[in-house]
Amino acid sequence: MDISQLSHKEVGDLGERIAADYLRRNGFRIEGKNIAKKTGELDIVVRKRRVLHIIEVKSMMCNEFPVPHQEVNSFDPAENLHSSKIRKVVRTGQWYISERKWEGEWQVDGVLVWLRRRDGAARVRYLPQIV
């Protein structure tokens, strides 16, 4: 399925669904998605064992998947995980933790999703503890 005509929002939504599936398949339990507050939005909140993970998802379309460990990589959605965005996620995560009265460990993680234009295939990379 050619996904080249998807809007930026549709790419983000598809990336978040793919990230949630990836996390589920890797032993995480989904606690919530797209949780919005004044301070920002949490893409996905998951739990694994006794740790709550606040997940920031960054997705982008590419013509071909990047080569792992390639020095110059123009297909890197991690570039969108800049410090001001991460601070916003941490502030919103603190609100979430407080409101839920969570007393266990928690951390902010990233999930990068590359979506290949011509067929909609995806590649996912999990980044633990981006803060």
Describe, in plain words, how this protein is organized in 3D.
The chain is an alpha+beta fold. The chain has a single domain, classed as 3-Layer(aba) Sandwich (Trna Endonuclease, Chain: A, domain 1). It is 27% helix and 37% strand. It contains 2 helices and 5 strands, in the order αβββαββ. It has a 5-stranded mixed sheet, sandwiched between helices. The longest helix has 18 residues. It is globular.
Percent in strands:
35-45%
Shape: globular
Strand order of the largest sheet: 1-2-3-4-5
H/E topology pattern: HEEEHEE
CATH architecture: 3-Layer(aba) Sandwich
Could you say how many structural domains there are in total? 1
What is the CATH C level class, in words? Alpha Beta
Q: Please give the count of helices.
A: 2
Uncertain ranges:
none
| Distance, first to last CA | 36 Å
Work out the radius of gyration: 15 Å
Report the structural category: alpha+beta
Structure in a nutshell:
The protein has helices spanning 8-25, 83-100; strands at 29-37, 40-48, 51-62, 105-116, 122-127. The chain is an alpha+beta fold.
Give a quick set of tags describing it.
single chain, 131 residues, alpha+beta, Trna Endonuclease, Chain: A, domain 1, 5-stranded mixed sheet, 5 strands
